[in-house]
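Table S2 (continued). Query chain:
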Amino acid sequence: MSSHADIATPPAAPSGAGGTQSLERAIALLRAVADAGTDGARLADLMAAVGLSKATAHRLLMALARDGLVEQDGRSKRYHLGPDLVALGDLAALRHRPAPPTPALPQPPEATAPAEMPPALMVRPSAFLRPEYRGESIALAALLCDRHVRTADGARAALLHESVAGQTTELSFARLAHDSARFATVLAGMGVGQGDRVAVLLPKGPELLITALAIWRLGGVYMPLFTTYTASAVAYRLTDSDARAIVTNGFLRRKVPRDNSRPVVTVEGDEAFGPDAVPFWSSLHEAAPLAEVARYREGDAFALIYTSESEPTPLGVSLPVKALSGIEQYMRIGLDLRDDDIYWNMADPGWAYGAYYGLVGPLLLGRTTIFCDGPYDVRQGYRMLTKFGVTNLTAAPSQIRAWHGADPGVSHQFALRILSVVGEPLPPDLIAWANRTVKVPLLDQYGQRETGIFIVNRYDPDGIGRYESEGADGGEAAQPPSGSLGRPMPGFRVVILDPDGREAPAGGAGELAIDVDHSPLFWFESYANNPQRTAQRFRHGRRYYLTGDRAFLDGDGNIHYRGRASDAIQMQQGE
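Corresponding output:
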């Protein structure tokens, strides 16, 4: 989350015995990881070597991971020394192992003193540029489903679906693989193939997951349509995307244009549907499973997300396969999602944040997705938290604000470990409520459909995290600076540009931008339907992606938000 400034500038000395003890434990963990060599260290080995509880060891390791000092291999779950230690070693080498003198060579004046990138603006390397997300032959359905069936218990839940009436339906990864392979055969019979877009107008439920995986088995593009869209909004997206087929239910089918000529699959239910519609479950059970899994290239789109219905011309944002690197990083580092967490992302999968991190992210990591039916209700939200023992929750500030206003005084019954907020600027009263009443760390995040989340702030009441200030008497943790969005995540170099497209110095205000050339996790290329708006995003050339938001960067690498001129931050409900 932090910038390269953390490498060049040492953190403030811990005050009191509590901070010293944490520092000593962190150093001991680093030494234990180093002793393990290239094989890496298991969490159990580190606990034994340093004499820490599982919770304390994991907490400190996550703090070290956020600063790039350790990293965890996604497959073996072993810990290794992180990429930022290389930079620290280089800095130490400049002092303790000076390079031997070399003969001076004449050089032109402009080459004698190359300009250095300010430390606060340097990019931190990411550990999630995995080879399986790169190349020309990527079996996406295997990454998101089939490998979890092969390498783990196939009975593990891919989905827990809670109805408005409180009934829970479970869909295992094994069943998801089986049903999606059959439904892929149904879609293939309708002509859906590589690169074809399939519109999915469905509420949260197992049919949505099955449909998405079936599309990806065929190499197609999943195009979610938010269920509250008007009929005209649905019609525009169907036409603009040139969708090959539609999957919906009887109730939402009325939003499909009457003159539609595309094949329509309709989930059976109480609503009647016409004779031209293909029944979802009946056709699925009659079909043979598709044996082959289509392959994507890293730049191929596998999802198409449209911007808000309120825009005069909604923009189509294509999500390429290579974006999986940023999605995994955000799930593991940005959300601090742990192996034993019960994760609930309340965002609707029709919106970008819900699609990226409530649908694709959990499938990528082999985690359970929780879907809750119906309109948002505070009592239902509390029931979900207690019923499933949710430990890692993501919500919009408006949802948290509703909980805050209707606090039933039972927060002590929650298993909640961490709370993440995205969708709106975060007001101070919600920070205080999360830290002091619910007593959990609060993560505040910034991003766009075109980028995913790339800036994260952590407000932590117990002093574990980026902004750490532990006192001997257990005093409050130091919090991020007031008004700060946070710091860029690894793999992104974030800058401030003046009106002429020049990088502003620390303290200078301007437009928030991403340095594309130095941001390996940046994936956006163009809008699917609007080259003029694409040109606006890159109006200073392809080097910089412009967010449309004003901000300034302080000397410590914190980005301070100064006004919204676009749909930044809005990745959730109410866009």
